[in-house]
Amino acid sequence: QEHSFVNLRMSTSKVLVGGDVQGQFSKVFERVRVANTKGPFHMLLCVGKFFGPDDASSTPPSALVPYIDKHAEVPLPTYFIAEDDDDIAILDALGVKNGGEIAPNLHYLGPGGVKTISSLKIAWVSGKLNDPKFAAHEIANSAIQELLSSSTRDVDILITNQWPAGVLTHVRTSVPPPSDFSPALHTLAQAAHALRPRYHFTAGKGEFYSRPPYLNGNMIAGTRLVTRFFSLAPAFNLGKQRDLYAMGMMPTASLKNPEVEPADATPSPYDRSAPSSSSSSSKAHGRFDMTPHPDNRTRDRHGEDDPRKRRRGVPIDPRDCWFCLSGSTTEKHLVVSIGDETYLALAKGSLVEGNALIIPIAHTGSFISASEAARAELLRYKTALNKCFNDQQMQTVYFERHVTRGAGPQSVHANVQVVPIKSTVTCKEVLTEFRNAADARHFAFEEVDPANWASSIPEGHNYFYVETSDGKGLVFHSHQAQAMPDIRPSFGREILASLMKMPHRADWNNCLTDTRTETADTRRFAEKFQAYDFN
Question: Are 299 and 412 in contact (CB under 8 A)?
Answer without folding.
Answer: yes
